[in-house]
Amino acid sequence: MVSGLLMFGQVFAENEWNVNKYETITIQTMALISCIYLDQTRNAGGTMSKEQDTEGGKRPHDTELYVDVPRTRLPIVYHPIYNITFMGMEKLHPFDAGKWGKVVRFLKEEQFVTDENMVPALEASEEDLKVAHTKSYLSSLKWSAIVAGITEIPPLMFLPNCLVQRRVLRPLRTQTGGTIMAGKLAIERGWAINIGGGFHHCSGDEGGGFCAYADITLAIKFLFERVEGVATATIIDLDAHQGNGHERDFLGDRRVFIMDVYNCHIYPRDRIAKRAIRRNVELDWGTQDAEYLRKVELHTEGVLNEMRPDIVVYNAGTDVLDGDPLGGLAISPQGIIVRDEIVFRAVRGRGIPILMVTSGGYQKMTARIIADSILNLHHKGLIGPEEGEGSSPKPIGSESSVSEKNKCVFQFPNSLHLQ
User: Which residues belong to any copy of the Histone deacetylase domain (predicted)?
Assistant: First the structure.
């Protein structure tokens, strides 16, 4: 292992790897290793369908994720474990692996949340994960090379898997647990936000694009299995990338309506998954606010008019931001804030529960934008303490509680009466 690390370090130094871009040869090598391992796993265990492997048809297992949450807490789910720090290796991927903590810090500075009024996320157990994932896929994560390929952090392949599990996969499992918990909270409260999650490239039997667990699929399947009256769901995926993970999971499942608005020229360009999209909105390079917001509003309204679901899962990726190295779009910070307001206004105005996850976003300022958007939703009466939820929402475009940097400032009163 030591010789392997030294060899990688030499290659790293000689090639002066730019951490803001993918190293094609390295990624291809990891993909080859992953394919060889997965083929060996399938051959050793025999061919097994997803339905067989996930032990479908049984009574729901006991879980700690569907806990009763006191009304003194807002349906905002977070845990400091979300943030990935591991000898600086997390910096080898353009994703800001500490953005979730920054979002919470900004919300605390505005006195909207405290440690006492948020819901602490719990880690999803292996039995929880089996609701959507195959045994063979979960077993594959015990190989560091597989995790390195999924997270696109090459040095992980040389590390003991026990370290990879603790420092990389445990945070992702905790975010996944947070999404499942937020699903239940959304049904109970009308809305919920997981400060993390949104791993929309992961399906039940394959990970990729920094997505190791299919939290969106899991949240929906948990609701279908455990909550009476929840039989349909709509996924509104506004991350810049196609959400091929949940699309593959729900391919042919008429209970789940998927709307996906994405840059069609970038990863993953998954044609099989695309067949699951019932409202497909493809964007071109450099799409800007006016066209983007018009399409978001038009198609969100259209989707909700076409089918009224029992819950909406909103994948609110911020990699649509202008300058994002992977998204390829040109949406302004204020455009993202207005986008989120459009979705919440359309969903909540119809009395439909909504679960929001934060998904992708590869610039340092995305944490500030996410926080500003949440504050704006609160100010407009679209989320917030129960006693304030019944007030009439303000029109889109009126003053909102966002940072000075985003050119629209709202002064909060000294007391927000969160309890």
Answer: 93-373
